[in-house]
Every structure is written in structure tokens, then in C-alpha cells.
Write a structure and sequence with these properties.
It is globular, with a radius of gyration of 22 Å. The chain is built from nine helices and seven strands; from the N terminus they run βαβααβαβαβαβααβα. Helix 6 links the parallel strand 5 and strand 6. Strands 3-2-1-4-5-6-7 form a seven-stranded parallel sheet, sandwiched between helices. The protein is of the alpha/beta class. Helix 1 packs parallel to helix 2 and helix 5 runs parallel beside helix 6. It has two domains: 243 residues, Rossmann fold (3-Layer(aba) Sandwich); 43 residues, no CATH class. The longest helix has 29 residues. Helix content is 49%, strand content 12%. It binds NADP nicotinamide-adenine-dinucleotide phosphate (NAP).
Length: 296
């Protein structure tokens, strides 16, 4: 709990799928501020509501008393009433200044001017501070995915702009703020970024780009206090994967809520010495569960 206390996070592609689960998981761990980016503002508002439901303010009153003694009863009643009153006042304050400040930004990351606005709005709201950037937003492109021979140039540009150019620009723009106090950049990749599968088109090529770009940023930022790591979440049951492989049974793929652990680890201080590494989220979870199983 509270592994992200005091951290300010910019998370792209937060309106559904993995991004939505990361937003909830980061709020659960007490992030101070979350800037959530996607094109669909209504979907982002739903995520904000889900965060409010998932991270409720629970009021628990503990009073020790021996209720066999009648004189204790009155003291207990008074104590419960006073505590509930105090908690109600505290909850009202939290509504004005909630634990996680959730900022939703509607933006199309294929547009450089939208990226400028995302960074400016985030830094303005978080008073110049940013600790974590998660480049999660991505598009699969046209589905079913055509072979490269038939791949339309316009779609090729759109996929590369969303999946590769936008993360490049976001990193470039947030760096001056992040370098002040150090921070963590997490890029989301795929196994399609290390194997050239037939029929994965510009998507696979964009993820090869993310792999190479992550390595290059990591090498150039060595020793700067800003660390760069990248994560392959593995097969997940999301709209993107269902569109990419409509004939497969989505039940065989992981629920995105189950792959968030490595993203929490990389955002938190526990991983402050981890830099320039590639992670596989589902293997990481497996390893963790195995270690916990051994320890139990
Ligand atoms: N699903 C898998 O099995 C799998 C496997 C390996 C890697 N991944 C990677 O995991 C990440 C999350 O994937 P997912 O399956 O959760 O995908 P998803 O459900 O399709 O979600 C993609 C997110 O990106 C946003 N987005 C797309 N284009 C955008 C644009 N131009 N501007 C702003 N936001 C945009 C979407 O929001 P709007 O539509 O509201 O803009 C949405 O929130 C991606 O990087 C993906 O490549 C997924």
C-alpha cells in the first residue's frame, strides 16, 4: 500500500484496457497526481469514477469497552458519535483535496500540438513536478491487419505516429521537468517488437521502434537520475487484441488487471536502481507469485 505516495504520474491510453487498470492500480497505491490521456473524454470520466469507487474512503471506528458495565455504554456512544463527526469533516476535506488528484486530458497523440497541451496542462496542474511517464497508448491500425504489401501509407503513418513518434515527443517534452528530481519512464512494448510476425503490419514495426528507442534513451540518460525501462504486458483480453485476432478465444488471454504489478514496481522507489531493462509483465507476476509461494 502507498508505494506511489507523493508521486505524480502521466499515463497515456488510460481510457480502456491496460491503461485503465494502471490508472486504478496507481491510485490504489496512493499516487499524488494522475494525468490520464486519451481521445475519448467520456471514457476517461468513467475511469475517474472507477478510481473513486475502487479507492473508497473507509471509516472504521475502534472503541475498546467492557459492555457488561452500564456506565461504559454512555462513554462508548459519545466516543462513536465524536469519531464519526470527525471522520465526516475529514471526508469533506478529502472531497475538496482527494488523495489522488485525477486530471483527465482529451488529446489525440498523433497531433504534436496536442502533445504540447498534454505536457503543459500536466506540469501546470502538478506544479512543475512529474515523477513517472507511462507511454501506454497504442493503436493496432487497420483490422484485420493487412500484409505489408497491401498496407495503406496513411495507416502506416498513423500507427507509427501514435505508437512511436508520440512517446518520443512526450519523453523529450517532459524531460526538463523530470530531470530536476529524477523519475521513471516506462514504455509499453510487445513480443511483436522483437519478432517480425507476418500480418502484424505497422504495429509490429512501431514496437520494434519502441524497443530501439527505449534502449537509446536509456543509454543517453545513464546517470541522469531519469530511468527508462520497457514492459511487454503479454497477451491480454482487451479491445486491441480482440480486433487483432478476432478468431481466437479471448478467454485464453490475461485480464489486464492481472499484469499491473511490474508497472507499480517500476513507478515506485523500490526500483530506483533499475534502468535500461526489458520486462515481461506476466513472467514477472509468475516469478513474484512463485517467490511468495515459497515464502508462505
Ligand atoms: N492487448 C494485448 O494483448 C497487448 C499485448 C502486447 C502489448 N500490448 C500493448 O499494451 C498497451 C495497451 O494495450 P491495450 O490492449 O490496453 O489497448 P487498447 O485497449 O486498444 O487501449 C489503447 C489505448 O490507447 C488510446 N489511444 C489510441 N490511439 C490514441 C491516440 N491517437 N491518442 C490518444 N490515445 C490513443 C486509446 O484511447 P482512445 O481510443 O480513447 O483514444 C486507449 O485508451 C499498448 O501499448 C499495446 O501495444 C497489448
Amino acid at each position: 500500500m502507498n508505494r506511489l505516495q507523493g508521486k505524480y504520474v502521466l499515463l497515456t491510453g488510460a481510457s480502456q484496457g491496460l491503461g485503465r487498470q494502471l490508472a486504478i492500480a496507481y491510485a490504489r497505491e496512493g499516487a499524488a497526481g494522475l494525468a490520464l490521456v486519451a481521445r475519448r473524454g467520456e471514457a476517461l470520466d468513467e475511469v475517474r469514477e472507477q478510481i473513486q469507487q475502487a479507492v473508497p474512503k473507509t471509516s472504521v471506528v475502534v472503541v475498546t469497552a467492557d459492555l457488561r458495565r452500564p456506565e461504559e455504554l454512555e462513554r462508548v456512544m459519545n466516543e462513536v458519535r465524536d469519531t464519526l463527526l470527525r471522520n465526516t469533516l475529514r471526508d469533506r476535506t478529502q472531497q475538496v483535496a482527494p488523495k489522488t488528484n485525477v486530471l483527465t486530458i482529451t488529446a489525440d497523440l498523433t497531433q504534436p500540438e496536442d502533445i504540447e497541451r498534454v505536457v503543459a496542462t500536466t506540469l501546470n496542474e502538478f506544479k512543475g513536478r512529474l515523477d513517472v511517464l507511462v507511454n501506454n497508448a497504442s493503436t493496432i491500425g487497420p483490422a484485420p491487419i493487412p500484409y505489408l504489401l497491401d498496407y495503406p501509407l496513411e495507416d502506416f503513418h498513423n500507427v507509427i505516429n501514435t505508437n512511436l513518434v508520440a512517446p518520443f515527443l512526450l519523453i523529450k517534452k517532459i524531460l526538463p521537468a523530470m530531470i530536476e528530481q529524477g523519475g521513471s519512464i516506462i514504455n509499453v512494448t510487445s513480443d511483436a517488437g522483437i519478432t517480425g510476425y507476418p500480418g502484424w503490419g505497422a504495429y509490429g514495426i512501431s514496437k520494434f521502434g519502441i524497443e530501439g528507442m527505449s534502449q537509446t534513451w536509456a543509454a543517453e540518460l545513464e546517470g541522469s537520475g531519469v530511468r527508462v525501462n520497457w514492459v511487454d504486458p503479454g497477451d491480454m483480453n482487451t479491445a486491441m487484441h480482440r480486433a487483432a485476432e478476432p478468431d481466437e478465444d479471448p478467454a485464453q488471454w490475461a485480464n489486464p488487471a492481472e499484469v499491473t504489478e511490474v508497472f507499480l514496481y517500476l513507478a515506485a522507489n523500490d526500483s530506483r536502481h533499475i534502468h535500461g531493462q526489458r520486462f515481461q509483465a506476466q513472467e514477472y507476476n509468475w516469478g513474484r507469485n512463485a517467490i511468495e509461494g515459497l515464502a508462505a
